[in-house]
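Look at one such:
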Amino acid sequence: MILSNNSEPILLTVPEGGIPQVTHHDLAKELAELAKSTGPFAVDTERASGIRYSDRAYLVQIKRFDSKIILLDPVGIEDQLFPLAKLMDEEWILHDAAQDLPSLAELGLFPKRIFDTQMAALLLGFEKVSLKAVIAHLLGYELAKEHSNSDWSMRPIPAQMRAYAALDVALLHDLRNELSQMLHDAKRDTWFLQECEAIRTSKPPAPKQQPWRKIANRIEIKDRRALAMLKNLWQMRDELACARDIAPSKLIRSEILGEIARRKPRSLGEITHSTLLRRGSLREFAPNIWQAIAAAWKIKTEDLPERNYVSQHQPFPHLSTWATKNPPAAARYSALRTNIFQLAADLGIRQDILLKPKVQKSIAWSGWASATDLSEKLSDLGARPWQIEQCAQAILAAAK
């Protein structure tokens, strides 16, 4: 169903068939339901990011074309999911698959191929690509989405939250059909297949190097001893959060850790009576905080963290230094970026979808010897064949 531009989307608060109950130990019954149904599997997960320490799936939503919606609570039955994994050997339909696949992999659930409805919308140049926006635009329904930040680790899961979760997969088959036809009409099916396969086979992102640097930069901590304290405090908080299964920011806000480090306290008493710990619940952490601070006071000066840090995984320095460190690269990047932005505008898609900014910077920094060398380098940097085909001439033109 596609509404005219003058039509208002129809609010959908409950999926067809009503609000599903949660499946847990009665998995065999639901497997039989899925087994006698047909077609790809619409799949989604609900996690408790920002509330719990882990990013595990606390609920998995599954629907085939002619099946009912199944809400699976996988907690505690992770070792019983092999029959489900074996059954789910058809295509999976997901929205923003990169967000869900890691937590599904933790459960032993791996797709053979995927249809990512968000990626389809991006390649088609949609301005808004959330599930709510794409469904409203193409199918004419407005999904109730007020539980996106809820605590999905709570048990039992209330009816309103179950309705929200079920709606995430209720219309994915219809959405797939619409988007598939649009991709075909736009002659972007090949682009889409390559992007979906790249998402499916991608490795989980590496942990951020020195994540405490972000708050240090934000509040402008320059003192190397204070940086060491912040590093220790960050690790202390992470260990406590992991042990309690609480999101680190829920335990102690990063800004508080940064301000404690900036003040460089000299005693446990100074920490205990600090206004930063005026909340009674935070004072319990005073001994842990002092232990981290005291250890940082003992670090030799030559071993303190440097004020400026460049990740070892970063193949180029900060862009602001290019003009002095590598003037030809700076000129290449300026011209390359202009050409990529123009090409993206001509294609009606975002420039970061056409070619990731990090790839743009990497190729501009290193340069290339020939058209063949450029294609090989782009491939090594993770660009897909369709991106190389579209971008190579624009990049080569930047060197002229």
Observations:
- Residues 224-244 form the longest helix (21 residues).
- Residues 24 and 73 are 5 Å apart (CA to CA).
